[in-house]
Prior knowledge:
Elements: E1 9-13, H1 18-29, E2 33-38, E3 51-55, H2 63-75, E4 80-83, H3 101-129, E5 132-136, H4 149-171, E6 175-181, H5 188-196, H6 200-211, H7 221-232, E7 243-246
Amino acid sequence: MDLNLEGKVAVVTGASRGIGAAVVERLVREGVRVVGVSRNAEATERSADVVRMLTVDLAEDHAADVAVDAAVEAFGRIDLLVNNAGGGARLTLAPFDQLSEEDWDDALAVNLLAAVRMTKAATPWLEQTRGSVINVSSIGAHRVDGPPLAYNVAKAALSAFGKGVAPELAARGIRIATVTPGPTRTAMWDRFAEAAGVPVEAVLAKVPEQMGMLTGRLIDPAEVADAIAYLASPLAGNIIGAEIVIDGGALRGA
């Protein structure tokens, strides 16, 4: 299926691995030029004419402006913003009474405010191209009662942001939508396993059943990337303010 994305320009945050790296790969296959933003941007085998990797910590002040300016300087326009940056340096499974102010600040800065700031910085450019914004949330936004609590709460706020800002952006010709993955095979699970002191394979084997996933397996980042590419395309031109859940049936509409 031709998604009619040839020649577009995208900014993808959290782009160096996991879902972000899969999104970059998927968009490049559609003929999109991409600026990938990450705190630890890794080298890419792609030509610099197609992909530029930018090392920026979006939790820092003015980082969003730096990222947007770099994208415009590189390719002259922005058609798509994918707010995928998430997790955080202080991501923890600690209970509420053990979460510090720094834990909360980090979770909100990375999982919510980075997307808010990137969207605000990119809006004047997206308005020119009648572009789109795709936020990457988590089913933790719907299951906030448990660890990682600060992360889940921040993702819930991100999901609400996408719905809340949709009318204002639509009035400026910009579509926004949210993709909400369930358990996806990313490096986050390695961090959880290390914190628990157990092999990651043991953790991954239990997750689908514990989360109620009807497929019996974790989600591949490429599956999330496929949904993001579709939502970014003109084929999804009437999808605004919506949340697309990719969770193997874990929520089942809850």
